[in-house]
Specification:
Bound molecules: phosphoenolpyruvate, manganese (II) ion
Number of domains: 2
Structural class: alpha/beta
Shape: elongated
Strand order of the largest sheet: 7-8-9-10-11-12-13-14
Helix content: 25-40%
CATH class of the largest domain: Alpha Beta
Distance between the termini: 20 Å
Radius of gyration: 21 Å
CATH topology of the largest domain: TIM Barrel
CATH superfamily of the largest domain: Aldolase class I
Number of strands: 14
Length: 337
């Protein structure tokens, strides 16, 4: 349920309303927008008498929110959320490119890629330390050492770092990580999501392999319900009957998510396609569709990458893509407020 307040509401009446709701076990999230103030009511609102609230002097309108996601709902928060990752802002008109290798392999590799992507205009560095691999015999990541090397690359370049967490037991290692990624395979690891909700650190939440957009938003809700509102959603392709591409990029996810939610939405064209030649066209499609950013795999030597070489761009191809993105950005779709 949302309560839209009249301008300059009487404080005593507002406090009374909030207390009354609080006594019924309903939490109130206040959003002061540039046009109106909205109270988002979270909890079992079935017992709330809508006419009673509507009758208050301070109330302009009351609406029930049908969607099961509340904190992530744009009805609760009409303005775009801007997520700050170590000083780099995503959303609300701020477009960012996260780039780097699938996995951190060595100090030389991560530092060389970090410098190259920064020179081309990337503003955040990615790199996997804990890798969710389909086969237990594949490279599993450098783990703690991988995080240490990312921190080193951040020290050398100034780029804030984004890396995936696979299990709660790893959380203690992420103090110097600027944004924690929850990968597709963990999108519904609810215990992990709940714990990340207690942090005050940005979370990059990727869509599950076969998840609906509502399920993605409900996972964001798990994080936000704990008080962490710094969530960025990521469309990374879903399982379909098509086998030519690694996954099928659901480009419509971008405008749908941006309509339903105020959270920033970025696209991962690397995991969506699995082929480096398909990364530039799909990345540009995402920009055109109004994405708030991209996450792109870049490797200095894709042929010898320990993970996801076939979908990794060389620094040279990344540079070329970045120039196309710059040219396209002024024509990107922007949703109407
Ligand atoms: C990744 O970004 O390294 C990754 C494993 O992605 P996803 O979870 O989308 O497969
Ligand atoms: Mn990868």
């Amino acid at each position: 349920m949302i309560v839209i307040l009249k301008q300059n509401p009487d404080k005593a009446q507002l406090d009374m309303l909030t207390k009354w709701l609080d006594d019924m076990g309903i939490s109130v999230h206040t959003t002061v927008g540039h046009l109106q103030t909205i109270l988002g009511l979270v909890g079992d609102t079935s017992k709330v008498d809508i006419d009673l609230i509507q009758a208050l002097d301070i109330v302009e309108d009351v609406k029930r929110v049908q969607e099961p996601f509340k904190n992530a709902n744009r009805k609760f928060h009409p303005d775009d959320t801007v997520v700050d990752v170590g000083g780099v802002k995503i959303g609300g008109g701020n477009f960012q490119v996260i780039a780097g290798p699938c996995s951190v392999e060595s100090e030389e590799q991560i530092c060389a890629v970090a410098k190259a992507v920064k020179a081309s205009g990337a503003t955040l560095l990615r790199g996997g330390a804990f890798k969710p691999r389909t086969s237990p015999y594949s490279f599993q990541g450098l783990r703690e050492d991988g995080i240490r090397l990312l921190v080193e690359a951040k020290r050398e370049t100034g780029l804030p770092i984004v890396t995936e967490i696979m299990d709660l037991s790893q959380l203690g290692l992420y103090d110097d990580v600027d944004m924690i990624q929850v990968g597709a395979r963990n999108m519904q690891n609810f215990e992990l999501l709940k714990e990340l909700g207690h942090l005050r650190k940005p979370i990059l939440l990727k869509r599950g392999l076969s998840s609906t957009l509502e399920e993605l938003l409900m996972s964001a809700e798990y994080i936000m319900a704990g008080g962490n509102e710094q969530v960025v959603l990521c469309e990374r392709g879903i399982r379909t009957f098509e086998t030519y591409t690694r996954n099928t990029l659901d480009i419509s996810a971008v405008p749908v998510l941006k309509d339903l939610s105020h959270l920033p939405v970025i696209v991962d064209p690397s995991h969506a396609t699995g082929k480096h030649s398909l990364v530039p066209p799909t990345a540009l499609a995402a920009v055109a569709a109004g994405a708030d950013g991209l996450i792109i795999e870049v490797h200095n030597d894709p042929a010898h990458a320990l993970c996801d070489g076939p979908q990794s761009l060389t620094p040279k191809n990344f540079e070329r893509l970045m120039r196309s993105i710059d040219a396209l950005r002024p024509y990107a779709y922007g949703r109407e407020a």
